[in-house]
Design brief:
The protein is α/β, with parallel strands linked by helices and 329 residues long. It has a single domain, classed as TIM Barrel (Alpha-Beta Barrel). It is built from 13 helices and 8 strands. It has an 8-stranded mixed beta sheet with strand order 6-5-4-3-2-1-7-8. The longest helix has 15 residues. The radius of gyration is 19 Å and the shape is globular. The protein starts with a helix and ends in a 6-residue tail after the last helix.
């Protein structure tokens, strides 16, 4: 991180002046898969135009944004994704992407510009295809190998753990290790939006089964190079789905912008006080990015279940007790 960004982060850490060093941009909620546990499959009705996207991104860079994570839906399904990635990386912005991997071979010129790619993986072939559709496993593997061959510095898998795959995780780790990759695990939730009463019982493990599964992952991590989770996320996930207090950098050094330009301090806002995804008043198209960022509520929460976000928050809070391996029992 450049020295100016370090100074800005320090000012935010002491509560003096927030700065959006990291922007998560949900390009579109369109996705060409229909995974059983996901509820982002169709575009939002007012997704930003080409001009609105680049105006917003320019304003964020002027405020100090130095890293952008592109999310979805499926970001590679967005019609302007190639131009967006080229524009960001030409300006020295570290750009990463979360994708299901299937479209990667068709987008290699764009993929090779990225600093990192996370590709969703639900287990061995039968588990993955059961959750995402027949043939999706082989296509995701092809996309993963293509990203590595394209020279992307960091390529890893993300596995959402639930009823559909909890008993097959050791087989997944074996496969990942054999391929020379790593995988990061996080729990399946009832909804990505946290603002619905969606019934997740078909894919969410009950609390007892979930904790037993993550206890196995902790044991496996002691001997495996294939598990990408830091200890802080594995230890944090022991509590799922119960509240687990955690330090929070949301709104201080990072923010999330949805496809319509609505800005939130965190993508999981419906667990954070009185802010929710139904409130679309804080919109960068109408207000400008600076005003929208200044208006953010900076509220911590106790329902943080995205692995890399959890790990970043424990670093933000300097919680060394969570970063270290637990004592053997």
């Amino acid at each position: 991180m450049e020295s100016a960004s370090v100074v800005r982060a320090a000012a935010a850490w002491v509560g003096y002046r927030p700065v959006p060093l990291l922007l998560t941009f949900e390009l579109t909620h369109l996705c060409n898969l229909a995974c059983i546990y996901c509820d982002r499959h169709t575009p939002m009705p007012g997704e930003m135009t080409h001009e609105q996207i680049f105006t917003a991104l320019e304003e964020f860079l002027e405020m100090g944004t130095r890293a952008v994570s592109l999310d979805g839906g499926e970001p590679l399904a967005h019609k302007h994704v190639d131009e967006i990635v080229a524009w960001l990386t030409a300006r020295g912005v570290s750009t990463r992407m979360n994708t299901h991997g299937i479209l990667v071979p068709k987008k290699l010129e764009t993929i090779q510009r990225l600093a990192g790619v996370k590709i969703s993986r639900d287990g061995p072939r039968e588990s993955h295809d059961a959750a995402r559709g027949k043939g999706s496993f082989d296509k995701a593997i092809a996309g993963t190998l293509a990203a590595r061959q394209a020279g992307v510095p960091s390529v890893e898998f993300t596995c959402t753990v639930g009823r559909h795959n909890a008993e097959r995780l050791d087989a997944l780790i074996d496969l990942v290790e054999a391929m020379g990759f790593t995988v990061i695990f996080q729990p399946a939730r009832n909804s990505l939006f946290f603002d619905t009463n969606r019934d997740g019982s078909a894919w969410q493990a009950n609390a007892t089964a979930h904790r037993a599964t993550f206890a196995r992952l902790e044991r496996r991590k002691r001997t495996s190079k294939g598990i990408a989770n830091d200890w802080s996320s594995l230890r944090h996930f022991r509590a799922f789905p119960e509240d687990q207090k955690i330090p929070c950098s949301a709104g201080w050094i990072e923010a999330t912008m949805d496809p319509e330009g609505n800005l939130y301090h965190c993508g999981n806002v419906n667990r954070c006080g009185n802010v929710n995804r139904d409130d679309r008043s804080n919109n960068v198209v109408r207000l400008g990015a600076r005003t929208a960022f200044e208006r953010l509520q900076r509220l911590g929460c106790s329902q943080c279940w995205c692995a890399r976000t959890v790990e970043g928050n424990y670093k933000w809070g300097v919680r060394l007790d969570m970063m270290l391996p637990p004592l053997r029992r």
